[in-house]
Amino acid sequence: MTFDIQDNKEKSQYETTVDGTVALAAYELEPENRIVFTHTIVPQELSGRGIAQSLAKHALDDARTRNLTVVPQCAFIASYIKRHPEYEDLLQK
């Protein structure tokens, strides 16, 4: 399943709306081209659809495109990176 994920720069979050409900991966941009992912929220009524994984993939792909270093304070984003080692190069060394 694919989702229309957008970077809502005003709210500092990648988001998608499914069945009228918003799911999101929030972030903070920091100096020196760093993006800190603070939390991922998928409301209960949307769980089990792969939305969180799609948000993480989209956000990390966008960080790569923008040459940003990723700081995964969000437990979900951190675990996603562990399960997908192709994103480990984005982590701060």
Q: Summarize this, please?
A:
By secondary structure, this protein is of the alpha+beta class. The protein contains two helices and five strands.
Please, could you describe this protein's structure?
- This protein is α+β, with helices and mostly antiparallel strands.
- It contains two helices and five strands; from the N terminus they run E-E-E-E-H-E-H.
- It has helices spanning 51-65, 75-83; strands at 6-8, 13-18, 21-30, 34-41, 69-72.
- It has a five-stranded mixed beta sheet.
- It is globular and about 40 Å long.
- The N and C termini lie far apart (34 Å).
CATH architecture grouping: 3-Layer(aba) Sandwich
Reported for the largest beta sheet, the result is: 5 strands, mixed
Q: What is the overall pLDDT average?
A: 96
User: What is the ordering of alpha helices and beta strands?
Assistant: EEEEHEH
Shape: globular
Low-confidence stretches: none
CATH superfamily: Gcn5-related N-acetyltransferase (GNAT)
How helical, in percent, are the residues?
25-40%
Distance between the termini: 34 Å
SSE topology:
Elements: E1 6-8, E2 13-18, E3 21-30, E4 34-41, H1 51-65, E5 69-72, H2 75-83
Parallel strand pairs: 4-5
Antiparallel strand pairs: 1-2, 2-3, 3-4
Question: What keyword list fits this structure?
Answer:
single chain; alpha+beta; about 25% helix; globular; Aminopeptidase; about 90 residues
